Automatic annotation (TrEMBL):
InterPro entries: Beta-grasp_dom_sf, Mopterin_synth/thiamin_S_b, Sulfur_Carrier/Prot_Modifier, ThiS/MoaD-like. It comes from Neosynechococcus sphagnicola sy1. This is Thiamine biosynthesis protein ThiS.
C-alpha cells in the first residue's frame, strides 16, 4: 500500500530535497523502515536507539497524532498521509 509522507525541510537533505515521498508500509514502524531503505540515514534522525520517534518530532496520520493512536504500531491504509512535524517551543 502506498502512503504519502510529508518531510520537514531540515530532513529533506536525506530525501534529495523532496518535501513529499511515496512509501509502502502497513504501520508507522514499517514506514520508518521503508524510509530508511530509500533514504539512508533518515531513521537515525527520526527515531532514538530503541526505535521510538524522537521526542522533538510529531508524527500524524491523516492529521491524527500517533501518540493518541497506537504509536509506531498505528496501522496505515492505502492513500494515507503521514506528516512528520518538528515540535515548536518558545515563549
Amino acid at each position: 500500500m502506498t502512503v504519502k509522507v510529508l518531510i520537514p525541510t531540515p530532513l529533506q537533505k536525506f530525501t534529495n530535497n523532496q518535501a513529499t515521498l511515496e512509501c509502502d508500509g502497513s504501520s508507522i514502524s514499517d514506514l520508518l523502515e521503508a524510509l530508511e531503505t530509500s533514504c539512508p540515514g533518515i531513521k537515525a534522525r527520526l527515531c532514538d536507539e530503541q526505535g521510538h520517534p524522537r521526542r522533538f518530532l510529531n508524527f500524524y496520520v491523516n492529521s491524527e497524532d500517533i501518540r493518541f493512536l497506537e504509536g509506531t504500531k498505528t496501522a496505515l491504509q492505502d492513500g494515507d498521509e503521514v506528516s512528520i512535524v518538528p515540535a515548536v517551543a518558545g515563549g
